[in-house]
Design a protein that fits this description.
It is a single chain. With about 150 residues, the chain is mainly alpha-helical. It has one domain (about 5-135). About 75% of the residues lie in helices and about 0% in strands. The chain has five helices and no strands. It has helices at about 5-30, 40-60, 65-95, 110-130, 140-150. Helix 1 packs antiparallel against helix 2, helix 1 (about 5-30) crosses helix 3 (about 65-95) and helix 3 packs antiparallel against helix 4. The longest helix is centred in the middle third of the chain and has 31 residues, at about 65-95. The radius of gyration is 18 Å and the shape is elongated. The two termini are about 25 Å apart.
Length: about 150
């Protein structure tokens, strides 16, 4: 499979996994009553909101925006998505080991296992996307021509 195809697939699947991270936190917020836990409830709601917005941005054709915005939007959103997923994992580990904002998580319920899986998948897929994506625009084309000339 060509690297640009893999880069595209990893971007969109990473966005889907990130949306799953947010939906899992929303489910915990509303169904498992995390909404009543001070600070943690707010963080779960913010996790959903940020994951949903970033996933929507990653799924949209934002690379078509003009200028620097178009060139930087996808990698910035990808890094932000990795940050949300990694932050969720770190928060979970802290809440299990030492407690987080006075809250201590116990056990590995299915929702927690799903969250860990989705967060790890998000990090892996968006990491692959960032590693494989090719910059677009005049600078990237000039850089590619210079690279080819150096290797000739």
């Amino acid at each position: 499979m060509p690297s640009h195809v893999l880069a595209n697939w990893s971007r969109y699947l990473g966005a889907l996994a990130l949306l799953g991270v947010g939906l899992d936190h929303l489910e915990q917020y509303s169904v498992d009553s995390y909404s009543v836990i001070p600070t943690i409830g707010t963080l779960f709601a913010l996790n959903f909101a940020s994951a949903a917005l970033l996933a929507a941005g990653l799924a949209a054709p934002i690379q078509r925006l003009p200028g620097h915005v178009g060139r930087l939007a996808v990698p910035v959103l990808g890094l932000a998505g990795i940050g949300v997923a990694a932050g969720s994992l770190v928060g979970l580990v802290l809440s299990e080991r030492t407690g987080l904002f006075g809250f201590m998580e116990t056990g590995y319920r299915p929702a927690i296992l799903l969250s860990i899986g989705l967060e790890a998948t998000t990090i892996a897929l968006l990491g692959v996307h960032l590693a494989l994506r090719r910059p677009h625009g005049p600078r990237a084309e000039a850089g590619s021509r210079a690279s080819v000339a150096q290797h000739s």
